[in-house]
Amino acid sequence: MVRGRISRLSVRDVRFPTSLEGHGSDAMHTDPDYSAAYVVIETDAEDGLKGCGITFTLGKGTEVVVCAVNALAHHVLNKDLKDIVGDFRGFYRQLTNDGQLRWIGPEKGVVHLATAAILNAVWDLWAKQEGKPVWKLLVDMDPRTLVSCIDFRYITDVLTEEDALEILQKGQVGKKEREEQMLAQGYPAYTTSCAWLGYSDDTLKQLCTQALKDGWIRFKVKVGADLQDDERRCQLIRDVIGPEKTLMMDANQRWDVPEAVEWMSKLAKFKPLWIEEPTSPDDILGHATISKALVPLGIGVATGEQCHNRVLFKQLLQAKALQFLQIDSCRLGSVNENLSVLLMAKKFEIPVCPHAGGVGLCELVQHLILFDYISVSASLKNRMCEYVDHLHEHFKYPVMVQRASYMPPKDAGYSTEMKEESVKKHQYPDGEVWKKLLAAQEN
After folding, report:
1. 3-state DSSP call for residue 4?
2. Which of 152, 10, 35, 170 is nearest to 92 (CA)?
3. pLDDT at residue 199 is higher than 90
4. Fewer C-beta neighbours within 10 Å, C or N terminus of the chain?
5. pTM score, two decimals?
6. Which residues carry out catalysis?
C-alpha cells in the first residue's frame, strides 16, 4: 500500500578517496575519487520509511549535482507518493521538463544525474512500502502499469506503447521458472577489479590469480593510454587466465575513430569479446564505423555508460553501432528510462550487459538486469553484468556475489541505502576522512 506525503528531501556530497590507490583509474580518468550525490526522502507516513537514492560521480563536481538536486526538489516536496507512482510518466516528465532547468539539459548532464538520484530514491521508497526489492516489484507489476512508468517521447519511431506491452506480455511466459532459476543460480557477472590502468604488473597478476581461484571466468582490462603497455598488460592477463576465459577491453572514450580501429587490430590477438567505449560516447556514426570494421576480427563494440538518455540508445541501435548495450542505473533517468532502453534492446535483439562499479552502481543495476532476464529478454546468451569489488561495505544492503554471479537481493528497496556512519565520515568537505586528508594536503 503506497502512502505518505513527501515532507523532506536532503542531499549530501559523499566522496571516497579511491585515487590514493589507483582504484577506478583508466585512460581518461586517471585519479577518480568515487563519489555520490546521496538523496534521502522522507514522508509523513507513520511507517518511518525513507527513500534513498544516489547518482555516481568522480569527486569534483559532486557539489554541482547537489545544487541541481536542490533546484529540482520543489517538484517532489509536498507530493503524495501515491500520486507520483499513480502517474509516474507524468511525474518523470515534470522532473525532466522543468521549463527553466531543461535549458541546462535537456535530459542530459548534471541536471539528468540529479533527476536520477531523486527518482532512485522514489523507487527505493515505493519498493520498501510494498515490502519488495525493486527487481521483484518490477517482475510482479502488471505490464500496463510498467508501461505507464515510461516516457515514450522521442522513441515512438522505434518503440511504441503497444510494442512495449507486447514484449512484456510475451515475457510472462516462463517468468516463474526464470525467477526460480535466478534465485537458485544468480545472474552471471564479470570482474573489472583486477585490471585498472593504474595498477602495477604484480598487482594485476595477484588479483587475476585470486579471481580465478574465486571462480571468475570473465575479465575486463582497461586499455588506451599506450599501445605497447596495453600489449604487455593484455599478454600478462592472458598468461594468467589462459586462452579459454573471456576477456573484454575498455578504452573509456580515448580514441578517434581511425585510431580505435588501428589500435584494436593490434590487440585482436588477445581475442577480446568486445572493445568498450572506443570513442566519444556521443559519436553514434563513429561507433557504427568501428563496429563494422571490427566484425572481421570477431570483436564487438560495447557502449552506454555515458549515454545521456534513451534517444542516444535509440540511435545506437538504429545505426547498428553496438553489439553489447550497457545501461547505467544513475546516468539515465532512473528505472523509468532504463525500462525503455531494456525494451528497445529486446526489440533489436541486442544483449544488455550493464555498467556497474563506482559507488552503489552494482547495488542498483542488479535489480534492472534481473528484471530484464525474468520479464524481458528471457536469455542469458552473451549477457553478463559488470562487478567491481569496491565500497560495498558502506551500504546497508550490499550486493551479494557467489560463484561469479549476482544473487538476487531479498531486502525491500533498491539496495541504495548507505550506512549513516559511512556517510558522515565521508561527507565532503566536513567528514572526518576529508578533514584529515585536506589538513595533510595543506601541510
Report:
1. coil
2. 152
3. no
4. C
5. 0.97
6. 222, 355
